[in-house]
Design brief:
homodimer; CYTH-like_dom_sf (chains A, B); CYTH_domain (chains A, B); CYTH domain-containing protein (chains A, B); NeuTTM/CthTTM-like (chains A, B)
Chain lengths: ~160, ~160
């Protein structure tokens, strides 16, 4: 499956009042190579293993494959991940017919908040809420795989 | 799950007459780091994703986690693996109460044949068939993850 997503910084926390969902996420990486990341995630009480490929030339789309695993499996796999586990809360905010996923980071990435919106094609229009900041789509330093190695606190 | 395995070279192909099973295996790696390999395998017409951790100090045991996936999923994931896909035929040979898995390699690893036996504990005794050669347990260059990067033809 190919995912098309645009990513933005978030200017303030006004989005929290509009959130329909809030989930704690802890994740680590079995590989952070740009051509093939392998992520282990605990989202609430469910585990996921996710493989992502290289970003397209436009920077917008990327191969993604995800499998649900148990909490126990995810916990075992997190133990052997690269150092730099990521800890964040994900908020979901509905804006017209699009859902924004907003990640507020903690730990070494405290202070960073980013929003992602998934699109059906690279040119699809969407409403931009007032709290949405600069676009950072395709900027490698905002990839979670990079945030685990080069966290926001060191920028 | 922790696996305890011992690995040996194979001196000749006499084992083929004793084989109870023979399966073609094609596999690639999403990561070949010694502390966390991620393998994509097609075995016959089934796919597997396998994560292995670091080998224990004794060189005999290693964390291993495996999930069955579809042939289509495995094929998609093989596309984004590191260069150096491994192509081999696996024979299973029963020797008394132990099963030896014997891999005959092709492509860049043609000429290499290795046998593995799985044990319940590190000191378990087992019968050694006449075709079994030198032990190479824990020798990193015989790891499939290393054979994909540094194949037998270059040794």
């Amino acid at each position: 499956m190919i995912e098309i997503e645009r990513k933005f910084l978030v200017k303030n926390t006004n989005f929290k009042a509009q959130a329909t969902n809030k989930t704690k996420i802890v994740q680590g990486f079995l590989n952070t190579h740009k051509a093939r990341t392998v992520r282990v995630r605990i989202k609430g009480d469910v585990g996921f293993l996710t493989v992502k490929g290289k970003t397209s030339e436009s920077g917008l789309s990327r191969f993604e494959w995800e499998k649900q695993i148990t909490l126990n499996e995810a916990t075992s796999l997190l133990n052997i991940c690269e150092p730099g586990v990521i800890d964040k809360i994900r908020y979901e905010v509905q804006v017209k017919n699009h859902t924004f996923e907003i990640d507020e980071f903690f730990g070494d990435n405290q202070g960073l908040i980013v929003a992602e919106v998934e699109l059906n094609d690279e040119n699809e229009a969407f409403e931009k809420p007032s709290w949405l900041g600069d676009e950072v789509t395709g900027n490698v330093k905002y990839y979670n795989s990079q945030l685990s190695k080069h966290p926001f606190c060191n920028w």
